[in-house]
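Pilot study result, target chain (97 residues):
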Amino acid sequence: MYLNLVNEESIFQMFLNGIKTQFGISIRAFRSDSAREYLSNQFHKFMTFNGILHQTSYPHTSQQNGVPKRKHKHLIETTRTLLQSHLPHPFQEILSL
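Predicted structure:
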């Protein structure tokens, strides 16, 4: 599903503000695939204005895409494990979906 740039930029802006507020740090680099919503001139200007280096993977290189997918899967599995060990039994069924 393709989201328009206004939504992508506003979502990223909320994420950026949340990181600054919650952790007191700023994002230095943003890595993405070569998706259109991240390659527009408007998004590039936004990233430059905020001092964020935007790095993209090369198109048609599944090797580069595999690493983030494996890291994401590991984070999800670790989070589920931690949540299941600390949640009451009725709520654990939700995590198994």
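One observation from the pilot: The chain has a mean pLDDT of 77. A full batch analysis is planned for the follow-on phase.
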